[in-house]
Specification:
Blueprint: E1 3-8, E2 12-18, E3 24-31, H1 35-46, E4 53-58, H2 87-92, E5 99-103, H3 104-115, E6 124-129, E7 133-139, E8 142-143, H4 176-180, H5 182-189, H6 202-221, E9 226-229, H7 238-250, H8 257-260, E10 267-268, H9 276-293
Parallel strand pairs: 1-4, 4-5, 6-9, 9-10
Antiparallel strand pairs: 1-2, 2-3, 6-7, 7-8
Helix pairs in contact: 3-9, 6-7
């Protein structure tokens, strides 16, 4: 089986061909430029590849309501050329195959649930902390959408008592993304996160915000696994700090051994590593193929 996968990110597009076991046999990436240019490269890559379906996990916000005339559009992004862009239609005109379409973070959650850290579980939440913060939700065996789709990167957080930083979210200032994404770290400390030493207080503040968001997700969605990916999470020292914040916030209230005794195995990095998003897009493509055969 040959399935196409597209992880459409804000800075790069990763495209691959994979099979029903989640094995990615071929991959390539292109910088995210204006849509006409990027889409041309992507279409060229998939031409003559004989894929049976294509799964797309994209940066958003997106329209993922199949009943809407704008289904498959990127909606309100500030990224030049991409606002109200008919992403899916452009592909459908070229490739006559079933398409899977969802947010990049929902795709990553789905990839992790299918082949990664949440394999065998019927729920997980995937956070990406990088240029922005995004949250994908898989619950009772399916991806959660709703009114639009979850936007858990913009939840409101309580301030760290020693943090005077105003926040950088253009919509909310000091929401989670405004306080904890890569650009917030850089604006608060004047250097990129990758240049801040592991023992610097920056990471305690970072863990304070991410830990709150995870605690809220545990209280509202009760996922069986919490997975943290994205560039900022390459800072391995964050994991123990975040787990400790989560336990402190919940304070023994949620009676689950996963939190009380085995949190090291509950709040974890992606089992698929850097492949979570692409593998998740592959899983979306597989799913679209299965649906089309019913
Ligand atoms: Zn925000």
């Amino acid at each position: 089986m040959r399935i196409g996968a597209i992880e459409a990110g804000g800075t790069k597009f990763v495209c691959g061909i994979g099979n029903e076991h989640g094995v990615i046999e071929e991959r390539v990436s292109f910088p995210t430029e204006r849509p006409e240019r990027t889409m041309e490269s992507v279409i060229d890559f998939f031409k003559n590849k004989q894929v049976e379906a294509i799964g797309i996990g994209s940066f958003g916000p997106l329209n993922i309501d199949p009943q809407s005339p704008y289904y498959g559009f990127v909606t309100t992004t500030p990224k030049p050329g991409w606002a109200n862009y008919p992403f899916l239609d452009v592909f459908r005109k070229v490739f006559d195959v079933p398409f899977g379409w969802d947010t990049d973070v929902n795709a990553a959650a789905y990839g992790e649930a299918t082949w990664g850290a949440a394999k065998g579980l019927d729920s997980c939440v995937y956070f990406t902390v990088g240029t922005g913060v995004g949250v994908g939700v898989y619950s009772e065996g399916k991806l959660i959408h709703g009114l639009v789709h979850p936007e858990g990167g913009h939840v409101l957080t309580r301030r760290h008592p020693e943090d005077r930083f105003a926040g950088v979210c253009p919509y909310h200032g000091d929401c989670l993304e405004g306080m904890a994404a890569g650009p917030a770290i850089e604006a608060r400390w004047g250097v990129r996160g990758s240049e801040i030493p592991a023992r610097h207080p920056a990471w305690e503040i970072e863990a304070f915000y991410i830990g709150q968001a995870i605690s809220n997700v545990i209280l509202t969605l009760s996922p069986k696994k919490v997975i943290l990916g994205g560039g900022v999470m390459h800072q391995q020292q964050l994991f123990p700090l975040i787990r400790s914040e989560v336990r402190k916030n919940l304070n023994g209230y949620v009676q689950a051994d996963e939190i009380l005794d085995r949190i090291d195995n509950y709040v974890v990095p992606p089992g698929l590593g850097e492949n979570a998003g692409l593998a998740g897009s592959l899983a979306l493509g597989l799913n679209a193929l299965k649906r089309s055969r019913r």
